[in-house]
Amino acid sequence: MTDDTYGPLLARAALHAGTYIDGLPEQAVFPPRTARDGLAAFDVPVPEQGLAGVALLDQLHAIGSPATVANAGGRYFGFVIGGALPVTVAANWLAGAWDQCVSSDVNSPAATKLEQIAGAWLKDLLHLPQNSAVGMTTGATMASFTALAAARNALLNRLGYDVEADGLFGAPQIKVVVSDEVHVTIEKALAMLGLGKKRVIRVPVDSQGRMRADNLPHLDDRTIVCTQCGNVNSGSIDPIGAIAEKARKAGAWVHVDGAVGLWARMVPDLQAATAGLELADSWVTDGHKWLNTPYDNGIVIVRDAAALNRAMATMAPYLKVDAGAAPKDMVPEFSRRARGVEVWAAIANMGRQGMVELFERCRSHARRFEAGLRDIGFDVLNEVTLNQVVARIGTPEQLTAIRAHVEASGECWFGPTIWRGRDAIRIAVSSWRTTEADVDRSLAAIRAAKGAIIG
Ligand SMILES: *Cc1c(COP(=O)(O)O)cnc(C)c1O
Q1: What tens digit of pLDDT does each residue of 167-217 get?
Q2: CB atoms within 10 A of CB 53
Q3: What is the sign, positive or negative, of the torsion defined by CA atoms of 380, 382, 387, 388?
Q4: Is 141 in the pocket of ligand 1 (CB under 6 A)?
Q5: Residue 286 CA: which ligand 1 atom is closest?
Q6: 337 Cβ inside 6 Å of ligand 1
Q7: What is this structure's pTM?
Q8: How many CB atoms lie within 10 A of CB 5?
Q9: Rounded CA gap, 187 and 145, in Å?
């Protein structure tokens, strides 16, 4: 043990973090080879004697910081990776100092309360049923896992089976309906739940990747329909209202994967696209994507609080089955960190209006990309209604070379995808930090790359 004390260490962490954040505009967005090779300096045997905290932080900053991906800055457009609002990072530090275990209010009155408030605010902001239960997970993958466990419980429970007690052995088969554009993490959740990632019925999609409500299979009271609000490529939104109306009549359960785009619910001119979304049974989204909290942060909301509680409770489920049940009885984790604090901080800091502004601003940046890419000669392959742009130019090899050229420039970063069978690039504007100048600077880098590769 070294004789570290908190004060100097936290001051040192703040110093390095400040230097890091301030340097982001000039840091290569994807770390250069030299910085990545520098990580080899961490390859040492287990230290026999400990290293003092300040020296350790200096090492983290000197070797680690240059080899990070600069998604905390304004010119990272890969996957759907948000930045982190300043107040959420700071709240995360404070909550780290609290070191709370958010299993129940016996372990942390403060963190449990903040999580409940954040949950209530989310239901209000997203216009979801106020009696729904809310849980905080590591991300949308675990949020969907949690919601689909509640779905499995509810359907089988109604048929007289106690799946938590008896497992799936001998239980009626559950039918799972997904679209051809289902996200891989829904498949993973289904696999973990014993529902099988291949044993699904796939519904075709339209040109934007939306599930076709007119192509649904027969639905019944043993069916789970997985829809999405925000396609990971195009940003498109399934006709959830129409799907949910049919599903309700049949007694089926509708799940909404809104990891990317549940926030569309708050954008005034996307009201029509998200109409009826409140008729679903469960919804997930991510704090760490568009809400701009630090990792890791996912949110699950389930209409039938008792079903969620029966699936997740670590006590006799009849003790408390309402939306106010303990955090440990809403999600897979028993002990965990106070991630609701960051959700609370983000909402408290931005307010409803600030959130709408953030989402609209990101979308307008996406549209600026759309126009700029067209001007360079790209085909834009999707309708840019959310924060996502899918585009292509030249041959697949040229496109790969353009991406590599842009990456090497350090100016911005975006990933490849395949959209409707064609190689494309995919740009997601998810960060509070991105400005018009960032978009223009990135477009200039793309234009230069296109000039170098295609002419
Ligand atoms: C990112 C994403 C997920 C998974 O979310 P994690 O937070 O990475 O677990 C699920 N669905 C969609 C549509 C996503 O974009």
Answers
A1: 999 999 999 999 999 999 999 999 999 999 999 999 999 999 999 999 999
A2: 18
A3: negative
A4: yes
A5: 7
A6: no
A7: 0.97
A8: 8
A9: 10
